[in-house]
Amino acid sequence: MQDHMQELMDDYLMVLQVESGCATNTLAAYRRDLRKLLDFFKQEGVTDFQSLTKPLWVKFLGSLRIAGLSSSSIARCLAAIRGLYKHLAMSQGSRVIEGMLKGTPKQWAQLPKLLSEAEILRLLNLPAIDHREDRRDAAMVELLYATGLRVSELVGLEIWNLNLEVGFLQATGKRDKQRIVPIGDKARELVSEYLQSARPAFVKKRTSSALFLTRLGRAMTRQCFWKILKDRAVRAGITKPISPHMLRHSFATHLLDHGADLRSVQIMLGHASIGTTQIYTHVEQTRLKKIHDTYFPRKHRAFKS
Questions:
Q1: Any catalytic annotation for residue 36?
Q2: Catalytic (active site) residue 85
Q3: What is the per-residue pLDDT across 199-210, written as a single tens digit (0 to 9) for each?
Q4: Which of the residues 16, 96, 199, 215 could staple to 22 if both were Cys, CB 3.0 to 4.6 A apart?
């Protein structure tokens, strides 16, 4: 059972890497922190994440203090474990340990990493290469930015989820919640071209309802698309580390920059709470502050009482 717990932990870390774009150092720290919990479970004979009881949790916290961890290290460890349990609750339907989710440090509030509109244009306007993989890749990147989907939602799309005539798709988000998202003219054009001239060559004589396929005719994976995106970013001259989730963040921020209301962006992103969407207002506030600091003529004059 320890092997199964290790697999669940690795899956959570993969989600952080692929969907959230976590830095390598952050992932390594989370892996070490989660390893502490697995080692503790092994010592206590615990074989399932759901078997964590409040007394065990208190004992685990005590073991961290006995090991001499600093307050900040313990806070990071608890944040990693809480994130893992939230992931298990959403993906596996596992019971969330109430005592652990309350009174523990929240994950560090970080503004989402974005691509500028100029970088997005360079990424989307790459010169076309005349082969079916390029038509597929261009359609996927355009669709991801045009809809703000999570990468898991993008690779999980099936043909019947599309209505290209009307210009909408049906996405299945966390906890299997479904929502309707508008597509946009350019994305409709590229997806239609992919369906007509590229996808049949991937399918060949097989049968698949998945929208985006690999050259072997299988459904596209998150990891495969992430590599595709990184390769296209290099071609576009984008030097910053890139992840699929950055396109989702960019979609939301650029909509708000151009006057969209927060509630509409919440619906398109599939956020259960508008509080989650409000992080993008902080991005806008940060951008406006930079503009003010750069251009306000009285910026160098100190305040005097």
A1: no
A2: no
A3: 999 998 788 999
A4: 16
